[in-house]
Amino acid sequence: MNKPPRVALLIESSRTYGRGILRGIAGYTRIHGTWSVFWQERELHSGIPGWLKGWKGDGIIARIENRRMARELLRLKIPVVDVLNNETYAHIPGFEPDEEAVARLAADFFIKAGFQTIGFCGYRGIPFSDRRGAALAAYLSKLNRHLLVFSPRQSNYPPRHIQAIEAAGVAMQKPITDWIHKQRFPLALVACNDVRAQQVLNACRDYKIKVPEEVAVMGVDNDDVLCSLSEPSLTSIQPDTERLGYEAAALLDRMMKGETFTPGLRRIPPLAIFERSSTDVIPMEDPILVQAMRFIREQLHSGIGVKDVIEKAGRSRTDLENRFRRHLKTGMHGEILRQRINRACHLLRQTDLRIEDVAIRSGFNTSTHLCRLFHCHLQTTPTAYRLGKGKSNQLLKEAP
Q1: What are phi and psi of 274, to 5 degrees?
Q2: Where does the pLDDT of residue 169 fall: very low under 50, low under 70, confident under 90, or very high at 90 and above?
């Protein structure tokens, strides 16, 4: 019997992102055959562990921090796959989140919500942050919109790794709020990750900036602990780290079997936006429409319809329909249905509720009705969506 391949995983478990990659790798090995895995608990900037230098193995999946680390791994003369992408390497294939898809998801969310002013707050000089900000700026440019970027002065001796830079970011509260005060409210602010987003929220709270009324904040990574500890709770984009880990494992498996690989990066699109209190705002100047939208959000579970919205707003149907179409590019029925489907999406991903209960809490009469609309508008089923196997794992962007 052939011995299982010996694989080293140089991936941190200290963050939800790294743990997601590890789960994806484990998922691959459960399906396609067991590996003899060598792994130890580590931080992102831990470098190469001492035990690896004398280790005899068949392959490595690593979060490669720099070219020096890449060279040392290549000296082992075994297949290597990178799942960090600080840089690209000619002889090491890499995986990263699809930053263009992340940008589209964030921008479309805020544009659909009615925001005119969108900003970005990241860590200048950190590759993933710079790529994320550039992708957001490029996407907004295509829509004839401008991205506002918080870009503080660099220290003469900048920290060398992301954790140190994040720690230094705690001292940037005053510059962040000074920059925010110069922008037009309401401001939609995308942070490069959840750590930066929490720092923005802390700065806003300490300097009396209202979130989400004046500034709506969104992070990336969907670290459930960090998002829940934030005040208010943080809306965040969920990267598909498990798929990234799974695909990286599949590529390494083929490489260990002698297959050639195509150099370059493989980009994995994000799963969805997980909405929480930090973006729960309706940034419209029409008070009648704001009242109607808040009523829809608050009473969505009760199965309200167009007549209920009209009664609550105290306006004619024609007047309300015109307001919805002017500001939201859809009618009242379409917006109610979009919000119901999106509510169901969040419940499917964030809870273990039965499909029947998800349907009821989203305002659908039956689970059959929910399933029919999922198939029609998202081309998948509620169960497949929950498992991440559907054709669309994002929210419904436009009203049906």
Answers
A1: -100, 105
A2: confident
Give me 27's structure tokens. Answer: 């998922």
Q: What angle do CA 240, 357, 361 make, to 5 degrees?
A: 85
Q: Kindly tell me if the per-residue pLDDT of 395 is higher than 60.
A: no
State the average pLDDT over residues 235-256. 96
Q: Indicate the SS3 state at residue 390.
A: coil
Helix, strand and coil content of the chain, in percent to the nearest 5, comes to 50, 15, 40
- What is the DSSP secondary-structure string of 36-103? EEE-----TT--S-GGGGG---SEEEE---SHHHHHHHHTT-S-EEESS-SS-BTTB-EEEE-HHHHH
- Parallel/antiparallel/unpaired status of strands 59-62 and 6-10: parallel
- Closest by alpha carbon to 42, among 23, 25, 19? 19
* Alpha carbons 181 and 215: distance in angstroms, whole number: 10
Query: Measured between alpha carbons, how far is 166 from 226 in angstroms, rounded to an integer?
Result: 14
CATH of 99-239+273-279, one of 3.40.50.1820, 3.40.50.2300, 3.40.50.80, 3.30.565.10: 3.40.50.2300
pTM for this prediction: 0.79
Dist CA 23 CA 30 (whole Å): 11
CATH architecture of 287-387: Orthogonal Bundle (1.10)
Yes or no: say if 363 and 340 are a contact pair by the CB < 8 Å rule.
Answer: yes
Q: The tokens of 263 are what?
A: 């150099």
Which residue, among 248, 246, 224, 254, has the nearest Cα to 236 in the 3D structure? 224
Average pLDDT of the residues of the chain = 90
DSSP letter (8 states) at residue 221:
S
Q: pLDDT: is 285 or 317 the higher one?
A: 317
Q: In this structure, are residues 103 and 135 in contact, taking their beta carbons and an 8 Å threshold? A: yes
Model confidence at 53: pLDDT above 90: no
**Are the C-beta atoms of 249 and 83 separated by less than 8 Å?**
no
The distance from CA 361 to its chain's CA centroid, rounded to whole angstroms, is 24
* Averaged pLDDT for residues 11-27: 93
Instruction: Identify the bridge partners of residue 89 per DSSP, sorted by sequence position.
Output: 92
